[in-house]
Design brief:
The protein has ten helices and 30 strands. It is an alpha+beta fold and 450 residues long. The protein has three domains: 9-96, no CATH class; 161-347, Jelly Rolls, CATH 2.60.120; 360-448, Jelly Rolls.
Amino acid sequence: MSLPLFPSPAELLDRHLDDLGPVVGRFRFKQYYLPGSPELELALCLVSPESEEGARCLALVTDQVSEVTRWMATGALDPPGLQCLADAIGSPVVDLFGPWELLPVHIAKPWGQEIWYTGIEARGQSLIAEGGNSVPLPWLLSIAPDRLLQPGGRDPALLKILDPLPEEVFGDLYFELHEEKREVYVVTHVDGDAWPDGTGAIRFGFDPEQRQNHGDADFRARFLSLVRDYEAIRRQIDGFCDRYRRRDGIGLNEPVPAHQLKKWLGDVPRVLRQREEAARAAMNEMTHLVPLAVGDVVKVPCLTPHALQHGVRTVEFQTPVYERKILSFAQKVLTQSHWDTEEAVGLMSLDAGHLEPLPVIERDSGYTLEQVVAFDDFEVFRLTLAVGGTWRAPDRDCYRLAMALQDGALVNGRVLGAEHACLVPRMARWLSVANTGAGSLVVLLCQPIL
């Protein structure tokens, strides 16, 4: 016996929703986020239990097709049977009406780490967690992305945390710009050792006084010249460090802890280190630093160079594309062999970045809803709930993301702790948030523009 093969898992879901009878089958999933888009065979089981709490559709999707086939020869495909199968193969049973708990993947960076809650690409895929087990987010979405996200949708907006090291230089991000990618940061923590007064920073655009002194054309030429000078020194230092990597058996493009990098830099000739420091200071003098405190919001316009500074932890929402141009970096760039300075200088905005106040959308005795940003493809809100406060969003025909910044959030009945997030599928349509904690609660919400 083998499971029936369906051209599309959406056919299984349609068949199930037509009469709510249990269905099982297999389908071929093209892993579009991996090089070459390798094909993977997955099994899908769908069961809808009777519930007084509203519609439910329990799904199990797994690559253990043979195990599901064996189970179907003897086991029952009902809610208890589906859970027994899931426990036996270590897969979760997920309600397609949600909400889904997002299990992040940690991506090492030279400057610290990124924590991806909805990441779907070759470097890592986020997971959906339920009952102690997990399944890759793209596998679950592959069942019917139109039904689970939005018509024509394949990936949700990318929700992640930027977690830089607290040390100057070592924890400073790339100075880069984007042509298409839209992103917004919400500051959640400023390291007290790195910034004793509680105010961190982001390098954001260019210094207005320097720009006025030089004029735009000369400013671009001077900045490009300074970066080229710095890059030449940087590559000499990186060459020394690459020798030490080979000596110590560490890959040339493998992230290493700051203490290891410091040890190698200590063996670089002092005169070269002094030249690097002076060249970096001259380059950075052309740029603009904006102070950041917990709760601040940074909307990054396309073509505006920016670099979050060390020790400033943020939640980021962005379009799910990998696209950037690196103008400069105070370490070796591990993900590409070149900087994009010359092209970026011709494209970049010379304006100084700034923070904008958030408009209040709704306010009541128990909550305040502010709009963080409204891009062409998605929008983000900040919901602040008083103790015991609740908020119900208008029903909406799309998915939504929610991240709690403190403990005590209840999103569509699912408890979220601090820096925990969930995805509410399109099939749910409704969204309710409550504060069950002992203090004020902030929840960040994201939804596509329809």
